[in-house]
């Protein structure tokens, strides 16, 4: 029996605020093939290859997460599909843990042609980041002319019956004029169209009060365009396995509208997630720059998985309340010291 097997299996973690950890966001790379204005800067430095978690190490992290009672794992980036043999990782995670709720967040530029394989491997949910439905504006935002590839991939996902969420960073003066088109996309297709409040991350110099489009304004404007019915709330208790979005069905439509409001109306009371960066650092809160360095332990001959498991358990019990960290930051300062692609979404 291994050291890991001697530990309590599926022992769920309850933090000091009564929240249960059940969800891990695991970033496989900080690299991306897009150059989104709010994420990418000219002086950006990517993590060197030797400092990135190897696939075998990512598999070990998932094994340990299962030991801690985590039931849902999301693979993120950067853009996960730019990493060579990414589908190998997906296949081996689900081969080891077929009961795991494994999801992927992608910009979908490299997704077309891979959707059926993902379904055959057991992937049932995909999140696609897409900030505009205008091909010309897509180039302006991302620096790349890949809109047709993304739109084709969305059609493939829906045709294969994989549950689809489309995530747009809500930016006034950038995509607020497209709210009718985004709602039409959700009305006409079986997907969740979700708006995420724009947050200043790392050294981002695009964010400003003028660009901030709060969820309350989005909801008010959306209600003028469609009849919305709330279908999800935050009253499910600390053990609820749900995401942070407030979700609304669209009367007469196939899809739904979702709003994620980390700045204007936090969901810290029900936060159930951990994040692990591409270089193996554990973050227990998006808004906390405190990180626990797991990679050196994984590679240390006298430490290894048992030490990592203990560190993950201890760190998880100390999860802070993010809204308190935000309140303590000076107005206009970034909500985190790193850019989102380096954290893992």
UniProtKB/TrEMBL annotation:
Pfam families in the cross-refs: Mob_synth_C (PF06463), Radical_SAM (PF04055)
Domain Radical SAM core residues, every copy: 16-238
Gene that produces this protein: moaA
SMART domains per record: Elp3
Organism: Desulfocurvibacter africanus subsp. africanus str. Walvis Bay
Cited SUPFAM superfamilies: Radical SAM enzymes
Protein name: GTP 3',8-cyclase
UniProt binding sites for GTP: 25, 74, 105, 165, 273-275
Binding positions for [4Fe-4S] cluster 1 per the UniProt entry: 32, 36, 39
Gene3D superfamilies reported in the protein's UniProt record: Aldolase class I
Phylogenetic placement of the source organism: Bacteria, Pseudomonadati, Thermodesulfobacteriota, Desulfovibrionia, Desulfovibrionales
Known pathway: Cofactor biosynthesis; molybdopterin biosynthesis
Catalyzed chemical reaction(s): GTP + AH2 + S-adenosyl-L-methionine = (8S)-3',8-cyclo-7,8-dihydroguanosine 5'-triphosphate + 5'-deoxyadenosine + L-methionine + A + H(+)
Keyword 4Fe-4S tagged: yes
């Amino acid at each position: 029996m291994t050291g890991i097997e001697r530990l309590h299996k599926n022992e769920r973690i309850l933090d000091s605020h009564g929240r249960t950890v059940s969800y891990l966001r695991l970033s496989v790379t900080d690299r991306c093939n897009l150059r989104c204005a709010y994420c990418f800067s000219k002086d950006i430095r990517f993590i060197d290859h030797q400092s990135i978690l190897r696939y075998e190490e990512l598999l070990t992290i998932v094994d340990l997460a299962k030991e801690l009672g985590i039931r849902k794992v999301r693979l993120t980036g950067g853009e996960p599909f730019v990493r060579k043999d990414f589908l190998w990782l997906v296949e081996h995670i689900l081969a080891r843990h077929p009961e795991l709720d494994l999801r992927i967040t992608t910009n979908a530029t490299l997704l077309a042609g891979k959707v059926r394989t993902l379904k055959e491997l057991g992937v049932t949910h995909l999140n696609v980041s897409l900030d505009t439905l205008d091909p010309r504006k897509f180039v302006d935002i991302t620096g790349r002319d890949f809109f047709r590839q993304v739109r084709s991939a969305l059609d493939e996902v829906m045709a294969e019956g994989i549950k689809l969420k489309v995530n747009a960073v809500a930016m006034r003066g950038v995509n607020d004029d497209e709210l009718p088109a985004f709602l039409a996309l959700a009305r006409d297709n079986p997907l969740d169209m979700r708006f995420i409040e724009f947050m200043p991350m790392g050294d981002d110099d695009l964010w400003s009060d003028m660009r901030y489009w709060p969820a309350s304004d989005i909801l008010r404007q959306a209600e003028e365009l469609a009849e919305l019915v709330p279908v999800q709330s935050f009253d499910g208790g600390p053990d609820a396995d749900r995401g942070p979005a407030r979700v609304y069905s669209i009367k007469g439509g196939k899809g739904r509208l979702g709003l994620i409001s980390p700045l204007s109306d936090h969901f810290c009371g029900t936060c159930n997630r951990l994040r692990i960066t591409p270089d193996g650092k554990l973050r227990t809160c998006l808004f906390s720059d405190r990180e626990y360095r797991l990679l050196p332990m994984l590679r240390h001959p006298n430490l290894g998985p048992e030490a990592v498991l203990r560190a993950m358990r201890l760190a998880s019990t100390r999860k802070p309340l993010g809204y308190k960290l935000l309140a303590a930051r000076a107005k206009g300062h970034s909500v985190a010291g790193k850019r989102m692609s380096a954290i893992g979404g």
